[in-house]
Design goal:
Keywords: Signal. One of its GO terms (cellular component) is periplasmic space. Strand 7, helix 5 and strand 8 form a beta-alpha-beta unit. 50% of the residues are buried. The longest helix has 20 residues. The protein is of the alpha/beta class and 330 residues long. It has 15 helices and eleven strands. Helix 11 packs across helix 12. It folds into two domains: 219 residues, Periplasmic binding protein-like II (D-Maltodextrin-Binding Protein, domain 2, 3-Layer(aba) Sandwich), CATH 3.40.190.10; 99 residues, 3-Layer(aba) Sandwich (D-Maltodextrin-Binding Protein, domain 2).
């Protein structure tokens, strides 16, 4: 079980906040996203294209930088809705929380990381990882759990067959690789594309493709909030579904142009190539429904990583009512 931060810390987390869709008569909804990532493109499209505003919602977007901090903010009412991996809701349930955290709208449906190799010579095979130094991600987080799951699917023991480094902070993994540490690294976009452009190596495999569909990033809220604000949650889900449909029906270049204000330090061609890569492997969910099969695969991955005390009840932690209503256009 992953321990959550003390609820008293929520006040001093130092959030990065963006106000969007402000309107005097709108209802305010505070979103906390676990990180700023173009992996969450539909969220930014919903803001920039005015889909939240059309639903009468005034969205305040905060980047909460980490699963524990995001869940702390949600549980202490620092935010209303969290965008974070579904595993966090399971961790809270395992701790015996009294106010259940409910997954109500899925945003991404695959892992978002890629296996990046320093050497670009010859065809890639998974056996090449044996005996190498591999920069992984934080223990207990979805990237690391998926990474280990995929390695095991290819008959590689991540703790015996290679030197797995997972004591480096998320923000420092890419710089560590760039400075010469490791032969392989697990990277999100746009870092993978940027490193390719800089000649540091190449993407040789996709953990998202290898692991299959999982509820990787989902909008969730406390049961008490949902019960008191059902109309708000429905409007929120309607806007997300509209954005998901927009992204799947527009080119990577069009999506890149819309979300560019959120990634001012990234070149447009890198934004486009990264979005294209995610679209091609189906990372952006085309609708907000979290399917039970995906939920079960998530738990298989968590169980394999030794992070699951007991199976979490899909019907307890997932509510697809709002997603289905949004898709029906009601």
């Amino acid at each position: 079980m992953k321990p959550l931060l003390s609820l008293g810390l929520a006040v001093g987390l130092g959030f990065t906040t963006l106000l969007a869709g402000c309107s005097g008569g709108s209802e305010k909804v505070r979103i906390g996203e676990v990180t700023r990532s173009l992996f969450y493109a539909p969220e930014y499209v919903a803001i920039e294209q005015g889909f939240f505003k059309e639903q009468g919602l005034d969205v305040e977007l905060t980047t909460t930088w980490g699963g524990d901090k995001t869940m702390t903010a949600l549980l202490s009412d620092g935010i209303d809705v969290a965008l974070v991996g579904s595993e966090t809701s399971i961790y809270v349930d395992q701790e015996g929380g009294t106010d259940t955290v409910i997954n109500f709208a899925q945003l991404t449906q695959t892992d978002g990381t890629f296996l990046f190799a320093r050497s670009t010579q010859g065809d890639f095979s998974w056996d090449q990882l044996k005996g190498t130094v591999f920069l992984g991600q934080r223990k207990g987080g979805m990237p690391q759990m998926v990474g280990e799951y995929v390695l095991k699917q290819h008959q590689i023991d991540p703790h015996q067959d290679l030197q797995l480094l997972q004591n480096i902070d998320f923000a420092n993994v890419a710089p560590a690789f760039a400075s010469g540490t490791g032969e392989f690294v697990q990277l999100f976009e746009p870092q993978a594309s940027q490193f390719e452009q800089e000649g540091l190596g190449k993407v040789v495999a996709s953990f998202g493709t290898e692991s299959g569909k999982v509820p990787y990033t989902v909008f969730m809220a406390k049961q008490s909030y949902i019960e008191k604000n059902q109309e708000t949650i429905q409007k929120f889900t309607n806007a997300i579904y509209q954005a998901q449909q927009w992204v799947t029906s527009h080119s990577p270049a069009e999506t890149a142009k819309v979300i560019a204000p959120y990634f001012k330090e990234i070149k447009m061609d890198i934004l486009e190539s990264s979005i294209k890569r995610y679209l091609e492997q189906g990372s952006y969910a085309s609708d907000p429904i979290l399917e039970e099969e995906e939920w079960n695969r998530l738990q298989d991955i968590m169980d394999e990583a030794g992070e699951l005390k007991q199976r979490a009840d899909y019907n307890k932690l997932v509510n697809t009512t709002f997603a289905k209503t949004a898709m029906e256009g009601r």
